[in-house]
Amino acid sequence: MIRALATLAFALLAALPARAIEIQQITSPGGIQAWLVEDHSIPFTALSLMFKGGASLDAPGKRGEMNLMTALLEEGSGEMDSVQYAEAVEALGAQNRFDVGDDALTVNARMLTENRDQAAALLRQALAEPRFDPDAVERVRAQVQAVIRSEATDPNAIASKELARLAWGEHPYATSINGTRDSVAALTREDLIAAKDRVLARDRVVVAAAGDITAEELGRLIDTILGDLPEQGSAPLPQPAELQLTGGVTAIDWDSPQTVVSFAQAGLPMSDPDYFAAFVANHILGGGGFSSRLMDEIREKRGLTYGVATGLSNGLYGETWQGGMASANDKVAEAVGLIRSEWDRFAEGGVTEKELADAKTYLTGEYALRFDGNGKIAGILAGMQLIGLPADYVNTRNAQIEAVTAEDVQRVAQRLLHADQIRFVLVGRAEGIDATN
Amino acid sequence: MTILTRLAPLALVLAATPALAEMPKGISHFTLDNGLEAVVIEDHRAPVVVQMLWYRIGSADEQPGKSGIAHYLEHLMFKGTDKLGPGELSKTVTANGGRDNAFTSYDFTTYFQRIASDRLPLIMEMEADRMANLRIGEDDWQAERQVVLEERSQRTDSDPGAQFSEERSAVQFYNHPYGRPVIGWRQEMEGLTREDAIAWYDAHYAPNAAVLVIAGDVTAEDVRELAETYYGPVPPKPDAARKPRPQEPIQRSPRRMERVDPRVAQPVMIRSVIAPERNRGEQQTAAALTVLAELLAGSSQTSVLARDLVLTGKALYVNASYDGFSVDPTTFGLSMVPAPGVSNEDAEAALDAALAQFLKDGPDAAQLERVKTRIRAARVYSQDSAHGRAYDYGQGLATGLTIEDVNDWPDILAAVTPEDIRAAAKLVLENPAPVTGWLLPAPDAPAEAGADAAAAAPQPASADASRPETANPGEVE
Lengths: 437, 477
Prior knowledge:
The structure holds two protein chains of two kinds.
Chain A lengths: L2 H11 L10 E4 L5 E6 L5 E9 L12 H7 L4 E2 L2 E2 H11 L2 E6 L3 E9 L3 H13 L5 H19 L2 H14 L12 H5 L3 H11 L5 E7 L3 H12 L21 E6 L4 E9 L8 H13 L5 H8 L4 E10 L4 E10 L3 H18 L3 H17 L4 H13 L6 H10 L3 H11 L6 E6 L9
Parallel strand pairs in A: 2-8, 9-13
Antiparallel strand pairs in A: 1-2, 3-7, 3-8, 4-5, 6-7, 10-12, 10-13, 11-12
Chain B lengths: L8 H7 L11 E5 L5 E6 L5 E8 L13 H8 L11 H8 L3 E6 L4 E8 L3 H13 L7 H18 L2 H13 L13 H4 L4 H11 L5 E7 L3 H11 L24 E6 L7 E8 L8 H14 L6 H7 L4 E8 L7 E9 L5 H18 L3 H18 L3 H13 L4 H12 L3 H12 L5 E6 L37
Helix pairs in contact in B: 2-5, 2-8, 10-16, 11-12, 12-16
């Protein structure tokens, strides 16, 4: 680093912009709560709805029903079949995305101001009155079966599925939200209706909006969209998952020049006092893009991989500290060895003050960059509510990162980072590394 | 320009040129004395700036035998300068709360950072520095060559679909370098040297071969002043401009390819033909092709092929692909996954029948109206991402369009007529020389192996979950 650049960086650091976003917390006339960031510069509204529980609310033996049900929400409702419904949405220029994951069923909608009420009426219809017409069910079921077949031949999917299977025992986290060929084949229209009633209810939805809409207008809008949903979901929310992971190596044979590596060990919940220390530690160890220790050792110095990354994976019902990479079959043993030795080095030696300072400036500076659009803001605000964060988290979060000390990082690293407790799943033809138990 | 864009329908299309749009609000444009062209996109909603520096040089400008050099050099651009050590640029960006990356395509090589808007001077200084003062250490180039080889293994060699795509391109183009993969052929990548990289850099990296796009919480005046300060002193190179590439001859023969691989889960057909690209002052055919792709497969319920093939149970999935951002003629593609129980032959025949019917009937008026509404709405939604707009302007200017061409594009799309679409459909659907590829599973592939052990890692619900950048096909990071 040249002196001029260093000086510039330092001077700018002191002037970190503190333009906070203003979150309004509203309650609709019908009693539904929502967060809003108003910005009238572009004539549309981004709306994000998250229904807690998601695919983890699949009934026992009916894995894949939430996923299939979610995909069918845009395939006909009310008086409209799938084509008529799609034509109506397209004619408004509205966009509705329905997704389901382990923790939530998510609706991300974009509506033009000029026809927002009509767009909202169509979204209401999809959520409250989906038809699950037999022809649509069979068509989408066949598409899901194709996805299941594709994942069975994708080494990345094979690796992450095996890791989840080892990690989560009987919990839904242990299996794919898509279900299996057999479970999806057996799903009935009645199953889909029951699935909808378990998750699409007002007691488990969080709502956020950003864009060209006032608080009053948003209140009416969400009453329109959600007012006809049942008060309560018909099943209790999922139970916490208990991590069953043990250290070791699982090898799955796959004919490929490279071995895909997925690995994980125990993580910690956001409520843990050392969560932010672990968050900073992860950034330095493997989360920081080009500047992490793992990237430096494995990619930059030795060229053993195109990319390696780690992350704290915090779900609503369980958490891990996990990572992934791919490396040539004859080099992957060396790369795995480096992950283990970096794990140990971190736990033993901690971090330097420079590493800590750089991590903090990145993590605090980067946070503000995420809020640069209505769609992004709505998604972040809904995600915060889903995991139970208060609205002022956006203003206090950086202070919690700033407060992390090198001792905090070392403490949490010693507590959590144990190379012998990492489970590696290798999919490929790895040489020089043997599977354990 | 090739024979394809000189076809008669174009004259009709040109007559329908809409009035040129004004410079949109918040967009400005200037050129420095050294030839660096710059676009500023103001968006003051968040204190964020994106800097993208687009070099008008890509893999299609490589010499035969040196495939992959454009992308390899992109990697080496992070290895330092007289002032910055290896990796220091990225580390400095990160330590200032920003992200950086780069990507290479057939026609351009692009470097970008996303950071708090008051750090713009810092990232401009470093980006201008490596435009002129790159240093590639003796120790760095070999490890980085291993990295790009691992990248090839990960992206291409581990994926039969990607391998097939690479070979289809090689068959599609007889003569144009678009037939070579951006990342390079493995055996040629293995032979690339530090000297090759330096020669590439010396020949092509110059302000007069680049486009600077700055988007976010900045003013045009400030950007101009900063650009003068940091990029202004970099001397131009007289020979840096892109040279014409070998062009495609007339293609007359249809080609068929088939690849069987046990890693393939189900049959997929991909068919493509050479198609005209967006050109300076002449984007009407490309606009009609863009709308045509939407009409054919842009909706999974209401598009022509969804209606005729998916809703009728003949196919699981259909797609139409066309991207007019290209220096030389590009491709128009269709793909299809047959439904279980439908033979590949029957599915392809059903596709052909649906396309023949469309050529006969032309576009449905109500459907065209809905597609235009979607395009108009997408224009509003696109204002939500300064980064996305930077991408649009950068790609346009890096592939030879003017800023007016990029500004005019939404109006040109809106002005596409049913006659334009019929002409565009004739151009690509009656092309005599399509490449049709079938990627097939092994006859008795154990497609269900592992499916019962299916499980997925939980998706983090944390507000700190990382949000990936937009990925673009045909590009390599």
